[in-house]
Amino acid sequence: MDNPVSFRAGRHVVYNMHVHLVFVTKYRDPVFAAAHLRRTEQIMRDVCADFEAELVEFNGEPNHVHLLVNYPPKIAVSKLVNSLKGVSSRLLRKEFEDLRFAYWQGLRLWSGSYFAGSVGGAPISVVRRYIEQQSRPPL
After folding, report:
1. Which CATH class, in words, describes the domain spanning 15-117?
2. For 108-128, what is each residue's pLDDT tens digit?
3. Fewer CB near the last or first residue (10 Å), C or N of the chain?
4. What DSSP state is assigned to residue 120?
5. pTM of the shown model
6. CA gap 130, 65 in Å, rounded
């Protein structure tokens, strides 16, 4: 059974805002293995926590990742995305030599674009299920 809607509260606000984010690797190259995705999830959880946001769901495939983020209204989604992509790119390329050399000059891991969708129309459970059903590469 789905969890009931839970609201978060700040000093002057009560909210329940979610965004579905999709980040694609540069050139859509399939560079992620399971270990990369596990580390990416941890990095993105830490970045979300720094923004007082919560990474509700994470999953990915060799060339892209899906995130469901509950975030406070004081956060601009574009600023959160820039930090998620920037920090994860820097740390993943630092920690995984294969990612450092996956691209010429090794400067960027992610495509410059991204998908961000408001999750107000569909029930959160449907979006969560969709993200959970995305396949991961074998261990």
Report:
1. alpha beta
2. 899 999 999 988 666 778 888
3. N
4. S
5. 0.84
6. 12
